[in-house]
Design goal:
Elements: H1 9-30, H2 41-70, H3 81-90, H4 95-98, H5 102-118, H6 129-142, E1 145-147, E2 150-152, H7 155-173
Antiparallel strand pairs: 1-2
Length: 178
């Protein structure tokens, strides 16, 4: 938890957004028993899980980018997680040492990329050998299964993305970078 008494407005908003997304997800899970056109119920449930991960990780990414921009980092240096890690280093922060949830966040982001750009399968960019090895490391940190080049996102994965994002916001908030 942050040492400060009052959270920043950005942290408060990010955490409220994550909780709202999670509440909406739980409501949607209760109505999943109703058939949705041609979509099988199992597919509908899996898609709900995927969409929660996609939405929640977007909040994490936006929050981290916002914090960096507030500290004067150029926008072009915040466009992806690799660039953000370098930007933090430029501010004197070793994110791997001070933000233990970062690897899991990056795993959820890798899953998000697979979901959004390839329907849950790895994208061609993720299949590049060096990137693929790193992606597998991040997926493992997030507890996400990877079977035959497909990420497996279920209800426990969706819930873990919520918990990890809330923890990530607290960890970034605790950095106290001027």
């Amino acid at each position: 938890m942050p040492d400060r008494l009052v959270e920043s407005a950005a942290a408060e908003q990010a955490k409220a957004d994550v909780r709202l997304l999670h509440d909406d997800y739980r409501v949607a899970k209760t109505v999943r028993k109703q058939r949705r056109g041609r979509i099988r119920l199992d597919d509908f449930a899996e898609r709900q899980d995927q969409l929660l991960v996609v939405s929640v990780i977007g909040v994490a990414e936006h929050f981290a980018q916002h914090v960096l921009l507030e500290r004067g980092v150029e926008e072009k240096k915040t466009r992806d997680w690799d660039l953000q890690v370098k930007a933090w280093a430029g501010l004197g922060v070793d994110m791997s040492a001070t933000c233990p949830s970062l690897e899991a966040i990056r795993g959820f982001y890798a899953a998000r990329t697979s979901i959004v750009h390839a329907g849950g399968s790895c994208t061609s960019g993720q299949m590049v050998p060096t990137k693929h090895e790193l992606m597998l490391k991040f997926l493992a940190a997030a507890g996400i299964e990877h079977v035959q080049h497909r990420v497996i996102v279920d209800e426990s994965t969706a819930s873990a993305s919520v918990e990890t994002t809330l923890r990530f916001v607290d960890e970034v908030e605790a950095l106290h970078i001027p």
